[in-house]
Amino acid sequence: MSSERNIFNNLSPLDHRYSRGENFRLLSQYFSEEARFKWEARVELALIETLVDFGIAPKKAIDQMKKAVESINADEVYKEEEKTKHNTRALVNCLRENVDSEFRQYIHLGATSFDIVDTAAILRYKAFNDEVLIPALKELIEKISEVAYRERSTVQLGRTHGQAAVPVTFGYYMAGFVSRLGNRLESLENYSSELTGQFSGAVGAYNSLSLLVDNPVEFETVLLNKLDLNRSEHSTQIIPPEKITDYIHGIVSTFGVIADLSDDFRHLQRSEISETGEAFSEDQVGSSTMPQKRNPINFENIKSSWKVTVPKIITVYMDQLCEHQRDLTNSSSARYYPEIISHLFLAIKRLNKVMARLVLDHENLKRNLDNHKDMILAEPLYIMLAREGHPDAHEAVRKLTLKSEETGKKVLELAQEDEGLNKYFDKLTTAEKDILNNPANYTGAAINETVEIVNNWSDRLNIERTW
Ligand SMILES: O=C(O)C[C@H](Nc1ncnc2c1ncn2[C@@H]1O[C@H](COP(=O)(O)O)[C@@H](O)[C@H]1O)C(=O)O
């Protein structure tokens, strides 16, 4: 992403449309070209510090290098790359320019470009994950948990195959997303904690370091410790790509849950269903031609950006192939990984806002359930009859539903008139009769399980309960 100065000249909508203001500022700290060089320079600094630890460089080199790292800027590195045609060497040359001549020899000593580039990329992904993405996801889980708890007893028509099924509660429905996102959040934490760095030279066999120190693996360990990273058990010129592939899978599968929720809410905002909706502001316009329209624009945007993001994981899988000890065909493609992460982050932030102002239409929820009330008692009726000994209750009730469709009489009325069923009816409890008279009572364990699930995840994720 480029700087905010000429934002409307940028080519990607990620810059000029979707990550304005605070979000742009946050993403830029980790994923702008300027940030990329800063993080790479930070790894170069860790190298100098380690060379000092091992008695190779003088201590003064550290302060010199710190100043050089501070002064790095992308323009300068790009200008230098015009000469070198090699971006890491361009960065090294810029750092060298900014230290006194007697310290220049230590910069990048023993390193290959991707000891710096790959390790810095892992650092950025981990830092963004821990400092920005996980807190935003936690906030979303908190917001959905609030809705789940508040609406734990709000009965909603459950739908399978787009058809009326049996009731659920809106809270329990939401608790499903709490559980799925909680699970993804823990996976992202795990995948991120598994990411490793490297400092092992041009073919990964520590050839260059072995000319500088007795134990190159110890050197690598000390260097990476300074960056809070573990070493990779084996590397070529690049870090083995599987762990970043797992992490990006974590990103894309988290996005899948968010897209699934958004798509469902888009349907729930359909004119015919109209059970939930995005809050509409006073001056907001739904359609440029139909003044009455209230469109689910945020849910649609999230689904759309999910569609842009999912195919990008194919590139990540393709980057697993790297010829012998390395080729450069993963270099350009890996520059797009931050877009995958950024899209998820922006979708989470957008959904956070929508969830905080989600509108539920309780009347429509009831109306939609009532419209199907008569037929949805078929399942509880057949199970009660079978439990009490009816030999073929499913078929008996199926026939009643057909008769109901033909005659317009209610299924329950037909069942009560059926002499063959009387003896089973007598055995039902009051609560069961209540279910047959009003299937809104047929919500199983939904209410208790909603509370269990939201409490479980607020404990597990250390979310302060506001409900
Ligand atoms: O430590 C080394 O550099 C070892 C060297 N391999 C390289 N490792 C890392 N970067 C290299 C390498 N080769 C080129 N370049 C430079 O990478 C830049 C690629 O630009 P882009 O395709 O836009 O991602 C672009 O600036 C390229 O010049 C080797 O020969 O094995």
TrEMBL record:
This protein's UniProt keywords: Amino-acid biosynthesis, Coiled coil, Lyase, Purine biosynthesis
UniProt xrefs under PANTHER family: ADENYLOSUCCINATE LYASE
Protein name per Swiss-Prot or TrEMBL: Adenylosuccinate lyase
Q: Which Gene3D superfamilies match?
A: Fumarase/aspartase (C-terminal domain) (1.10.40.30), Fumarase/aspartase (Central domain) (1.20.200.10), Fumarase/aspartase (N-terminal domain) (1.10.275.10)
User: A single GO molecular function, which one?
Assistant: N6-(1,2-dicarboxyethyl)AMP AMP-lyase (fumarate-forming) activity
Q: Report the PROSITE patterns cross-referenced here.
A: FUMARATE_LYASES (PS00163)
Q: Which SMART domains match?
A: ADSL_C
Q: Where is this region: Disordered?
A: 276-295
**Gene Ontology, cellular component aspect:** cytosol
Annotated membrane-spanning segments are none
User: What are the residue boundaries of the Adenylosuccinate lyase C-terminal domain, all occurrences included?
Assistant: 373-454
Signal sequence residues: none
Q: One Pfam family from the UniProt entry?
A: ASL_C
- What CDD domains does this protein map onto? Adenylsuccinate_lyase_like (cd01595)
Job of this protein? Catalyzes two reactions in de novo purine nucleotide biosynthesis. Catalyzes the breakdown of 5-aminoimidazole- (N-succinylocarboxamide) ribotide (SAICAR or 2-[5-amino-1-(5-phospho-beta-D-ribosyl)imidazole-4-carboxamido]succinate) to 5-aminoimidazole-4-carboxamide ribotide (AICAR or 5-amino-1-(5-phospho-beta-D-ribosyl)imidazole-4-carboxamide) and fumarate, and of adenylosuccinate (ADS or N(6)-(1,2-dicarboxyethyl)-AMP) to adenosine monophosphate (AMP) and fumarate.
Q: Which organism is it from?
A: Halonatronomonas betaini
Where would one find coiled-coil regions in this protein? 348-375
UniProt-listed GO biological process terms: 'de novo' AMP biosynthetic process; amino acid biosynthetic process; IMP biosynthetic process
